[in-house]
Amino acid sequence: MMSIEVQALQQIEARLPRLGAPKWKDPERRxxxxxxxxxxxxxxxxxxxxxxxxxxxxxxxxxxxINAMGQIEALVLKRQCDIWxxxxxxxxxxxxxxxxxxxxxxAQPTIIFSSSSKxxxxxxxxxxxxxxxxxxxxxxxxEYYENGPGFSAGYFDxxxxxxxxxxxxxxxxxxxxxxxSSAGNLPAYPNNHRESSPTRNAKPAINAAxxxxxxxxxxxxxxxxxxxxLHVLTVAHAFDCEIETNAETxxxxxxxxxxxxxxxxxxxxxxxxxxxxxxxxxxxxxxxWALYTIDRNKMHLSNMVFLPNGNILFPxxxxxxxxxxxxxxxxxxxxxxxxxxxxxxxxLVALPGSRSFQRMWIVILDRPIQMGDSGSWVLxxxxxxxxxxxxxxxxxxxxxxxxxxxDIVNDxxxxxxxxxVRMPSEAELEVTKAVDEVKRAIRLPEPQQxxxxxxxxxHPRRWG
Length: 464
Prior knowledge:
There is one protein chain. This protein is α+β, with helices and mostly antiparallel strands. The chain has 2 domains: about 15-150, no CATH class; about 150-464, Thrombin, subunit H, CATH 2.40.10. It contains 8 helices and 24 strands. The strands form 4 sheets. It has a 6-stranded antiparallel barrel. It has a 6-stranded antiparallel β-sheet with strand order 12-13-14-11-10-23, with helices on one face. A hairpin with a 3-residue loop joins strand 17 (about 325-330) and strand 18. Residues about 10-15, about 45-50, about 155-200, about 240-255 and about 440-464 have low confidence and may be disordered.
């Protein structure tokens, strides 16, 4: 016979709230919404449903979401294989958190699971129902979307060799609506300094160059010093795609290291090393990075970032702390400098081709994510510190996912057996000479002190 104590305990547990319908009332709910961080959710269905929106969560809802996400992270580590039960492929999956609703008037704190796989969404729902995830008494919502993450390294049917960008016939249609950005002082601008040069023989800068590996395009992020040698960083999935293509078409031929092409310069470099695989191992997190060796007769190794206000950022430091809500600068090979904001709360992302979840941080761009954005460096506009690089995004939205620079560097150190990895100095990159050449080419104003930028949060698939 069941004891009175056990019965009482079961009754108490039955009353404890679990992940499900939230019931937050004013003013707590309204206080939890960052009202200038609106991001539309996209339903990839034949018939349109309600237009739902996400906002960055503030206190008092934010600590409750942090607690719920911590429980989900532990659950994912325990049962992550169950997410793909019955799914033959490995589509991207992500767990996000935000204030969610049709409007600010009804938004509630919510965990959102997104995947293009109906099987994965069904499995995730079953796992949540089976597990005892206890949340704040006011409740935390749970939603399931099919707009999962995808790579932002792009396949281009036609690439303009002069500009390094897709031709007009191959450009994807982009949504007209743009997410609200509160930065305002760093408007996006084209990479004009790449199109101009003091002489016909001037070498283009490698950082934020849009290159292609076979049919795949990605952005070259910047230069790292690895055990005393200069190498350029980008994403590994662009090389994975090329290697897989070669394996399908030339099985009998020993594959050579993938070559990197840039406009009419042709081959500018070859792969030096990349993450071991897409799966996490005991010695590696399987993060999305690749280092390559560049022909310095064709490209100038540079980390300088020219802002539209005339200021020049030079990344000297690798950010070591988890990011907070703050404005950022994204140096892309597709559209040049782009404003954005990083959200201080991590998401759990399993990239396409992988069945391991990793912590990644959301960056909300002031324009939709584009094919070719993968590899773009994300920088602190006030200090120039390197925060991370883009590896994925949600198609049709302004949402990108980044791997932190700190984690990339630690993974590189592990991969190469403890070699020193750091940011190169100005002298090692011959910065003074490069600045003079570029200023003569496009008449940049004299460098000024970097503007003090408010640390307010802006608007929060792999993209190569």
